[in-house]
Protein 1
Amino acid sequence: MHIAIILGITFLVILITVRVLRFFSDKIKFYAAGLDQKFAFSELGTLWKLAQLCDLQEPQSLFFSVPALSRCITHIIEQSQEEGTQDTPKVQEFLSKLYKYRTKIELESDQKKGLDSTKGLDKGQKLRIILPGKGLHESEIINSGRELVIKLPTQKGIIKVKGKEWENQDISVYLWRKGDANYVFDSHVLSSSVFNGQSALFIMHSDKLLRAQKRRSVRCECHVNAQLYIINEPIVNFSTVETNPGYRCILEDISEDGAMIRIGGKGVSNTQIKLQFELEDSFILMFGLIKAVEYNAEINQSRLHFECTHVEPTMKNFILSFVYKVLPEKQKEIFAALTETENDAKEMGDSPDEDGSESLNSNDGLNQEQKVNSILEENLKALNPDSDTKEETVDTSIEIPEAEILK
């Protein structure tokens, strides 16, 4: 009788413990990750409260993501303004703590050197690998010693290229390092064998890694005549088609979220514009902002880095169709690899689309894009070493007048 009571009580305690642990599992994981990141217990209490108030799907992003923390601070300010509590001591004290944490994270982020060598990669690190002529594969690191040992790469879980076919091949490797960024490096497959019962490749380490915070959208070179209009109205009608001629310009490359525009004169950043043009007989309207300017004084022309903030879905699909049709196969593989590493990042709880996406001045925006472009250019050169990229000047037979924005 007593044994039955004891067993019943024990079972009840275990059941309650399991339910409590299940209920608090997210909080336990959050605190464990925070302590691992060297946050004080009192700081974690504040950050957990913030994550709950802002309904963050990935609360751990507050440990390393300045944009996530900034977004939450904005949420608190807007909420307190609506409730009329912004100037209360309680809200102001909470905001002071948050700004302090934001500064701490930003300083720590600035001090990070990133990854200098593949010897710093951990076991289990997911890899996306391009084998020229054989497409994009996936793998992961199973050991790191004199060489990197990786699982025999697969495509959608199936081995399409046997071990012997990988030997003595040059490959490009893409990865997302947790809490950090995208990395790309080139390597050489030394041999294929079995390691700890798994089919594996032995590849060379590399000290030359390219790092980028954010993947650029799929973009392709083009030579499209367009009309540029300056937007002065506070409220924009996205359906209005201009019948009067605008300022003639040339689109040198295009994606669904932006373009590189060449135009006469000196461009001015942070100017709202509208582009109107035809793409393979499809009419396109794009609205957005000039984020950065490259001015060439010798020829008095500017290249405008245009960020699109609005394009109708049908028109966006026309652009994507054009881009993917024109894009070389090798470059498609590079973009596919970067996309897959970002998917890996999301599985890890990182937010690749937010990194580096805070308010930037024109030069910061330009540098950010140049960093990402360097990855694409270096890898395209590696895949096609005989091709040289030469900047093509604007067709002089097309007159490009100076616009009001071009001072």
Note: The chain has three domains: 2-111, 121-212, 215-407.
Protein 2
Amino acid sequence: MRKSALFAFALVVAALVALGLIVLSSASEANGVRLHKDAYFFLKRQFLYIGVGIVVAVVAAFVDYHTWRDIPGLAWLFYAAVAILLLFVFPQLGGRAVNGSFRWINLGPVNIQPSEFAKLAIVIVLAVWLDRAAWRVELFTKGLVVPCLLIAVYAGLVIKEPDFGSVMVIGAAGGLVMFVAGVRLRHIIPAGLLGGAAAGIVMCFNANRMRRIMAFVHSVFGGGQEVVEKVTTANMDPAAYQAHMALVAIKNGGLWGVGLGESMQKQYYLPECHTDFIFAVGAEELGLLFSIAVIVLFLAFFCISVYIARNASDRFGRFLVIGMAFIVFFQAVFNLGVVCEALPTKGMALPFFSYGGTNLLSAFFAVGTILSVGIHSYRDKKRVLARSVLMR
């Protein structure tokens, strides 16, 4: 493990956060004025979330990651606590609906989204279980049944909200950790297909999600609707509206952008311009160079994480890093795919950019965990080298 890799990773995260704040300062103005009579309402709250997130990341980085495994029951307690939080999003226990979904718990001035914590918890608990299982991960029960049950509990609770995007992240992250741990592909692949089929069946009975999928299929295979500078929205499918408006923003931005603060799409044409579709505003105002920079930074985030995982001191650290990095990277890729209309419309935040406290804290916790593995692996390597020198 090289110390330079840890510095590079921290710099990449800092660049993502800084770029996210710059774009949010512009993208959130219109909605801030409309909803709260304050153009900087969302930006000020985002600064607060980032401050808390940095504290979370620092604590997670300097606390030995082995704590999750070495303190008996700690990972399972975290898993159970998140499962209980997922129950509290439902109306019977005080949850509130937003856009027809029950995903948030109201805690006075703030709302938390437990499904964001579920993504972290599934990686941690699977890393602990699969590390302790050692070679027995190749067995059907130890390697497949127990991990799949752990994933299924969260997936079942989250899909009831409904939040198909989080179900996808939980299942994919869990499957990746299982693969890295050495669970046999002949076990993982059928289980993944079965889980995907189950989620697909549930989705078929959700009119809103099916409308989005059909709008996407029509746009790809049915000729769609040409994106031009002036889009007529009278006959546009509501499910495809935001994706079309996002493409208009990207097209308007061109190579150099229209200038920071000069976006037209954020003026009520793109309702979620400060959350799920913030990338489109950045592309409109800062141009193609911004888009390339964002893609490069997220690729660097994942590649450096893989390097840290490969040089981790043990299997447990490797599982944690791969799982945590995948959560952030997968959400980024999916968000960019939706904004560019390469994927069906699905509300999924762009890590470090989209406004929102829970997603930001989750991303910072993932960053802190990755750094913890890197820092402690680096220290372990130094101790081994020092010991070898003394023994000469």
Note: Residues 357-391 form the longest helix (35 residues).
Protein 3
Amino acid sequence: MTPYEIVDRPERDQLGEGPFWDDLAGALYWVDIVGRRAYRLDPASGEILRWGLPRHCSAITPTDRGDAIVALTDGLHRLDLDTGDVSPFARPDLDPGNRSNECRCDPQGRLWLGTMCNNLRHDGAPIPIDRSSGTLFCVEADGSARRMLEGIGISNTLCWSPEGDRLYFADTMKEAIWVFPYTEDGPQLGRRRVFAEGGPGHPDGSAMDEDGCLWNARWGGGRIIRFTPDGRVDREIILPVAQPSSCAFGGADRKTLYITSARQELEGLAPDSLDGALFAVAVDVAGMPMTRFAG
């Protein structure tokens, strides 16, 4: 079992998600979707900044101009990191029954947003998902958006290969991670094929390392699985939580794997339960750098 550390903070996330390591700031960003809060951790000092948000938020992405984009229920908004003010930026998905979910930038600095049928009431209580109405969009710096995929159940995992010629994307409802040939001009996606499918657990968020291996959080499976470029499992990190949700490589050498987790819908948790904690795991391979939004 790989040793892990728990990031010291007083709270646990209801639904931790969307970790983003910013090389320029030397900081980790992530969100609590149900808690309507975004965070920024400075590992060097241990300082954690917090921003309350008006609606459920599935991701936070720093931008080249110094603020951040937050993926709220109704679309993308700009977050002023100094004042906490939130202002609308783009609403690619106009379906009122959908909400934002997965969100990552491609190597060119475009923001990819995956949506899904809204499964959260205003108070955060779960709603059954009754349709695969999600869509994957590519959002340019000016806020214009292109529809890239449709018919998605639960959008998860957005990672690009080190060569930038493949995109990995998961639909948790279909229990599958797909890989697409990727052309940066356009951009364009080629014909998809199944990269990995089946358990343990369900495919959630992922991170890419410099060897081209995909590290995937397994919701309900209590672990991170590392897949080689040909889809083989060559490593697992077993965690003391049921619902790891996503991961990102960070630290000065990008050899720390930060892992978010959730306690939503888990009943009978002990007072000292680690569900909802943020974990840090030292690994022996560096992750690919994450790209700020160019807008």
Note: The chain has no helices and 25 strands.
Protein 4
Amino acid sequence: MSDRKTKLAPLPSVNFVPERDAAFTPILECRGLGINFGGLSAVNDFNLAIGRTEIAGLIGPNGAGKTTVFNLLTKVYQPTKGAILLNGVDTFDKTSVQISKMGIARTFQNIRLFANLSVEDNVKIGLHNQIKYSEISGLLRLPSYWKQERKARERARQLLSIFDMQDLAESKAGSLPYGAQRRLEIVRALAAKPSLLLLDEPAAGMNPSETAELMDNIVKIRDVFQIAIFLIEHDMRLVMGICEGICVVNFGNIIAKGTPDEIRGNPEVIEAYLGKGFVGGSESRKY
């Protein structure tokens, strides 16, 4: 698990990243980000940076705007105002496909697997940007096709081994237990070789043992792939246990940013989200 005493270093803007990442351009920086739906401001003046190897958390009550932020980052929605910089590059007018190629991959609150395909094939779909054979080669099953297919199969098995799922490669994705489907979705996202992985409630539906294993694996993914991870989660044990920087939103506005210790003791956060019973550390509860 992460060092829960990680220090955050200020950037020239209003944002912070871990000290070890401070000398590098943040993998993600949001500046004054916002979106309106009609007359409703769903996200307003959202400012956040994520360091290149940071595990960061986004928390808040249901309906606070968390998934909307993820949809803005991946261009499911186009912002009404503000800027999103990915590795220092403005993503203005980029499409979801272009954002994926720029290095963002995500999972979803509701699992979106191809249930009738095998576990391995689901991962291979995530490798689409890396498969290099022509349509003719694929149609005629030329040697170049089989060479790329073999590479894709080997890579899919390697990625599945992160979660010890390689023995399930031939199983149908839809036949897996709920927790395993969640893990498969993370593996498929990793197949795209992201520099920033967005996880939308990755522990949803998991029991405490599965959640503890997931925490270890999230840290392992960050360390092995040297990428940043930004997660939405309601399980405070997970958030406080592995996140270095935490952003708290309520009604589309940021009400606090800081380390787990700073967030845990923030009166406004306690009132809006954690609850008075959280003081003293009931981190195993889900909110």
Note: Residues 117-192 form one domain.
